Amino acid sequence: AGPIGGLSWDEAHGWREAAPKLIAPCIAISPMRDMDGVSLRTSCFTTDGREQAVEMDRIPFHKLFQRDYMDAHTCDAMLINMIGAKTRSVGTICEIAWGYRRAIPMFMAMEPEGNPNDNPFIAPMIARRFPTLADAINGLREYYGYPAYEAGAAD
């Protein structure tokens, strides 16, 4: 889980592409799976600091919501990367709330301060918060009894 809006394709997708290799043998499910860069780019890039709308004919909102909802309700743990978020990520906040309701372990990477998603309603739902994505990945690996991966592979 993590922000998509307000980010470039590489910022939103790059870490999601690398994470499955780093958390193996755990299986990763990305909310950006099966989406091509062209259809998503309009929801990622900003113009004059404002988020552009998703092309409704290419990615209907109800399908995005349904898939994220089912992913959050069927996963065993959640890796959340809030590092570098430029705007509040409503979708990620919903995913965190769904995970909290199910009492699944959540491992979140977020800067110690200044992140637009850091607030008193999110912090208590996350049992394990880390200052880097690499630390969050290793926290997840440790939780499941797997050895740490080599430093620098996720950042």
Jot down its keywords.
mainly alpha, 5 helices, two-stranded antiparallel sheet, single chain, globular, 5 strands, 3-stranded parallel β-sheet, 155 residues
General description of the model:
This protein has helices at 9-23, 37-44, 61-74, 90-102, 133-143, and strands spanning 46-47, 50-51, 78-81, 106-109, 128-130. The protein has 155 residues and is mainly α. The strands form two sheets. The protein has a three-stranded parallel β-sheet, with helices on both faces. A two-stranded antiparallel sheet has the order 1-2. Strand 3, helix 4 and strand 4 (106-109) form a beta-alpha-beta unit. Helix 3 (61-74) runs parallel beside helix 4.
Secondary structure blueprint with pairings:
Blueprint: H1 9-23, H2 37-44, E1 46-47, E2 50-51, H3 61-74, E3 78-81, H4 90-102, E4 106-109, E5 128-130, H5 133-143
Parallel strand pairs: 3-4, 4-5
Antiparallel strand pairs: 1-2
Q: Give the fraction of residues assigned to helices.
A: 25-40%
- Gap from first CA to last CA: 16 Å
Order of helices and strands: HHEEHEHEEH
Number of strands: 5
Return the average pLDDT rounded to an integer. Answer: 81
Structural class: mainly alpha
Determine the number of helices (DSSP H or I, runs of at least 4 residues). Answer: 5
The geometry reads as globular
The fraction of residues assigned to DSSP E strands is 5-15%
- Strand arrangement within the widest β-sheet reads 3-4-5
The description of the largest β-sheet is: 3 strands, parallel
> Over all CA atoms, what is the radius of gyration?
15 Å
Unreliable sequence segments: 38-47, 53-57
